[in-house]
Write a structure and sequence with these properties.
single chain
């Protein structure tokens, strides 16, 4: 399963969020073997940026590990509103 997590960040908090999220993702990669990507939309609207974390090929139970990692890293302090998670799976080729 692939996880796509998106949320908004105030322009003033973007650098702090980036540093905390990068450290969190490095820890997740080291401890659980899941390399994350951190992305953002190129524009800012009303002082808010949209950011996304991408985690590909995650093992069972990873979403719970991610929730704990987010709390431990203090990411919620820099997020405006809620984190939204979408889960996608690979499509099996038709035979």
């Amino acid at each position: 399963m692939d996880l796509y997590v998106y949320y908004q960040v105030k322009d003033a908090d973007a650098a702090s969020l980036q540093a905390a999220a990068a450290a969190m993702q490095a820890d997740l990669a080291r401890r659980h073997g899941v390399a994350g990507q951190l992305k953002r939309r190129p524009d800012s609207k009303g002082g808010l940026q949209t950011w996304m974390e991408v985690y590909s090929a995650t093992p069972a139970g990873f979403a719970a590990l991610l929730d704990s990692a987010v709390a431990d890293a203090g990411l919620l302090a820099w997020i405006a509103g809620l984190r939204h998670t979408e889960v996608f799976m690979d499509v099996v080729p038709c035979a």
